[in-house]
Amino acid sequence: xxxxxxxxxxxxxxxxxxxxxxxxxxxxxxxxxxxxxxxxxxxxxxxxxxxxxxxxxxxxxxxxxxxxxxxxxxxxxxxxxxxxxxxxxxxxxxxxxxxxxxxxxxxxxxxxxxxxxxxxxxxxxxxxxxxxxxxxxxxxxxxxxxxxxxxxxxxxxxxxxxxxxxxxxxxxxxxxxxxxxxxxxxxxxxxxxxxxxxxxxxxxxxxxxxxxxxxxxxxxxxxxxxxxxxxxxxxxxxxxxxxxxxxxxxxxxxxxxxx
Length: 259
Prior knowledge:
alpha+beta, transmembrane helix, single chain, 7 strands, N-acetyltransferase activity, 7-stranded mixed β-sheet, 7 helices
């Protein structure tokens, strides 16, 4: 039996729903990570333990040695009851930020007609990573003249293609790999493919940048491995203010690394 095939191909019109789903998922995935990290943060754990102990004291649920092993289970309901409000509170605080990020991405100038949008510059591209016939990742690199535009004009609500051309700075608008496939670092192949295509396609392109948060550690690691360097912090996310950062790769650095 032959092993499953993996390939990287260009976006096609019938991929629209798959790509939209991946874009939304990539942004909302950070919500689950933020909620988990918030719940396990040392400050949260200290407050949770203190409140749980206070509840045990108030309810007099301390272990009763005369009951044997069962007696040691007495305090557990207090710890469980105190955990629930924290979980709900963190989700209530974190969710609006991540939903806004997902909506902003899905209102991007590339979304209405992705096929046309990414054909305006030879250095642009939207690629699908397939494994065993299933789409498991996407990489969207925008090298067009308006590559740094984040949203559609409210007045038009539609994408209007300007004259074709390549900017000096390209932006990776979307990058996502399904979680089960990250362990084998397949994301490195996808990112390298997109970057290599962009720099080889047009000599005008001198720089590629991407913004990502520390909550998507696999993306940050992938960027570092490919030669991207930290530029600046752009914003904070979640209860504990996880940083969103901008990373950039210069053509000269890429060419030296790719030799």
